[in-house]
Amino acid sequence: MERTLAILKPDCVGRNLIGKVIDRIEREGFKILAMKMVRLTEQTTGEFYAVHRKRPFYRDLVQFMSSGHAIPMVLAKENAVNDFRKLIGATDPAEAESGTIRHEFAENKQNNIVHGSDSVRTAKSEIAFYFSEKELVENNPDLS
Ligand code: IDP
Ligand code: MG
Fold it and tell me: Is 52 a catalytic residue?
């Protein structure tokens, strides 16, 4: 079963939207393999988003992602990576299709509720960034 990394961002947690967003995720058929609540440091978010370090929005993004608690989770489903990107919608909620999580809940291009890996390769490294093998395999012997 394909896996992807999702993160409920600090705006999602701060606006009490955790349950609503997880409901959407589960209704689309994703299985949550692992999940935890974390308060990320600027150092950690900076590393996670290192691919964007030359972009003008990088500093603000790093500050935003470390401004409150966030919830990384590992999701499993056939075509999990692409299906989750479809479910969350475009980066900018103004461009996200109706029915997508960002269209429904996001305030702006930065505060856009949720992260989703953009390829199977990225998903592998992003999952390893937040979760150990122990958390993934020992908790899910039948799903490993
Ligand atoms: P994605 O989350 O849809 O994959 P990326 O281009 O990978 O979008 O950007 C990572 C995150 O950086 C976005 O989810 C958003 O929070 C923030 N971001 C991207 N582009 C902008 C921008 O133009 N202005 C402000 N924030 C941005
Ligand atoms: Mg991205």
Answer: no
Is the beta carbon of 139 within 6 A of some atom in ligand 1?
no
The residue ranges of the chain whose pLDDT is under 50 are 144
Residue 144 has what pLDDT?
A: 47
Domains of the chain and any CATH numbers: 2-137 (3.30.70.141)
Which of 61, 103, 114, 122, when mutated, tests ligand 1's pocket best, judged by the most ligand atoms within 8 Å of its CB? Answer: 61
How many angstroms is it from 133 CA to the middle of ligand 1?
Answer: 28
This model's pTM is above 0.90: yes
The verdict on the CB of residue 115 being under 6 Å from ligand 1 is yes
Residues ≥6 apart with Cβ < 8 Å to 41: 66
